[in-house]
Amino acid sequence: MTNNQPLPASTPVKTSPRLDDSITPRTRVSIGVTLVGLFVYTVGAKPEFFGWDRSPVVGFVQIIVFLIGLGFICLGGYTGLHALWWGRERTITSDIGSRLVSTGYVFSIFAGMADIFGMGSHSFPQVPYFGPWQATGVLIGQGIIALGFMMMIPFRQK
Question: What average pLDDT does range 62-88 have in this prediction?
């Protein structure tokens, strides 16, 4: 057999999987949504990073902006991790993780907006105050979100 002749049809060709086989367009969109969410979250949480700080306290608009950014992060992370399960049946752990992501986000919203909903230390006619209890509640919600994302990771079985 010379170099110009093709291989016979019965010869197995062993190819190694490429690095980007699991990166689908859906995964790329989810990464983009997550990065946009991170930017929006950063603008809401620390506007002084961009020179946009107009107030010494964390106000209503800042709370809304970082909660919207957190929502984009949750949406992008959920979409990306769900795309990694493509073609396989999801486990019960992954289903529980996806529900924990949404539960953590709802927990963060209620903790961050406690004054607006009338559950905080300052009722709504006053200026909303994002205090240490609300910050702790948002952090607990973010911890629940992170736990849910870790539960959604598809570990490959050998």
Answer: 92
Half-sphere exposure of 63 (CA within 13 A, CB side): 21
Q: Would you state the pLDDT for residue 1? A: 52
> Residue 44 is encoded by which pair of tokens?
């809401």
Three-state SS at 41: helix
93 in Cβ contact with 34 (< 8 Å): no
Rounded CA gap, 133 and 136, in Å?
Answer: 5
Is 80 exceeded by the pLDDT of residue 91? yes
Give the CA dihedral 81, 87, 92, 96, nearest 10 degrees.
30
User: What 3-state class would DSSP assign to 120?
Assistant: coil
Cα(131)–Cα(112) distance, rounded to whole angstroms? 9
Q: Which residue has the tokens 């995964």?
A: 27
| Domain extent listing, the chain | 25-152
Classify 111 as helix, strand or coil.
helix
Q: Which of 58-62, 110-114, 122-126 has the highest mean pLDDT?
A: 110-114
| 76 touches 32 (CB < 8 A) | yes
- Find out whether 151 and 92 touch, Cβ atoms under 8 Å: no
The model's pTM is: 0.80
pLDDT recorded at residue 37: 97
